[in-house]
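Researcher: We're teaching a course module on how sequence relates to structure. For the next exercise, students receive a sequence and then see the predicted structure as tokens, so they can try to spot secondary structure elements on their own. Here is the exercise chain.
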Amino acid sequence: MARVGLGLAVGCAVVTCAIAAALVSRSVRRRWRWGQAVALVRELEVACDTPVGRLRQVVDAMAVEMHAGLASDGGSKLKMLLTFIDNLPDGTEEGTYYALDLGGTNFRVLRVQLGGKGSMILSHKVESQPIPQELMTGTSEELFTFIASILKRFVQSENDGFQQLPDDRKDLGFTFSFPVKQLSISSGVLIKWTKGFSIEDAVGKDIAQCLNEAMTKIGLNMRVAALVNDTVGTLALGHYNDEDTVAAVIIGTGTNACYLERTDAIIKCQGLLTNSGAMVVNMEWGNFWSSHLPRTSYDIALDDESPNRNEQGFEKMISGMYLGDIVRRVLYRMAEESDIFLDPAKNLSVPFILRTPLMANMHEDDSPDLTEVGRVLEEHLKISRVPLKVRRLVVRVCDIVTRRASRLAAAGIVGMLKKTGRDGSGGVASGRTRGKPRRTVVVVEGGLYIGYTMFKQYLNEAIGEILGDEVAPYVLLKVSEDGSGIGAALLAAVYSSNR
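Model: And here is the predicted structure for the students to work with:
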């Protein structure tokens, strides 16, 4: 019995040791996995770092590329497209003007009533209309006839069905947010379609003329007085509200910028004569690239797998289309290399499954146990039972990616100011009066800036860091909403043949 008892004791001891060893091994593995995950996040943080010195290098690179793009066609990744707009609305415009805003699978028609100096915009009405899927791949005549018909119905409803007189022609602002080579203020040739459109017979055609012909065909006595993109429309509305507005930026699903360039700079570069001291230039800055941009392995992989590889490099680092997917790629690598999620994370392998609004919701979750982070992970990525410390790590990844994006966008904005001498660096167009920088307004539109508090906060902070205490107070960023549509109507008023 003593031997049996001894054997049982030894056996129990062996089992206890085995269990203890297993528990220790599991604990060691957990600590190792956690250490791997933390190391990956630290690596990301270093790779995405944007100290003010680096941001100033991006500022300089942006200004240099702007010079090169103005100097010659193809001289830079920045298109620097002349818009022929050398006169912006100033509040003196009067009358009723219409606008059409086509930039995706929906289009909008607008009516704006202007009251002149002191009255400004008396009223405006907007109506949105989806474009049938078949018209996105049909013919240009079918698309523009449909759009013109909706516009005619809108005009008649505004006038209680009253029919226009033959000589009662109305001027229209047309916001067309696709790549166009501008020929004049009221004409431009379509370079290519994007956003799901593939109407081949429209490529190479004057888009304004296509719409004019469609309106004539259905008996709508209108003509396109101003053909613009959404960024230019935003600048027009900004300048209408504040004459110190010199640039506009859209930071949403995509991103772009335009600004007022001095006429002498345009004449020097391209020999173009204008009647004003400045002209609006559409930068198409989403395609900007510089070796100073902090690119990571995740950015490279995203670009390699995109349909527009080696294009829109700046846009892929700062816009809403891509930020969520960059975060997804980081989390997927963490799941593969450190296995920190208790559940399988197969959905993290699906491109763009984590949209930027969801990423923003996780980033801005201020609940004690990060409830929103857990909800997004479970409902959208099918990852449940995520420990709190892992949720915190997810928030940290969101913060790193967003902070880099917003600070790079800020550097782009200051790059525009540097090109026009409004960054306080001096020069021919230093913007200084009596030893002080001139008041400068940049209007910003887009859901990423307007709806994402942390993005906006980081961007504004970076503007201040780059410009410094002396200049920063004179540079104001103002939110603009619906500028693409109302701005087009305002430009129709400026360039109306009836003025």
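Model: If you want an answer key for the exercise: Residues 171 and 239 are 20 Å apart (CA to CA). The chain has a mean pLDDT of 87.
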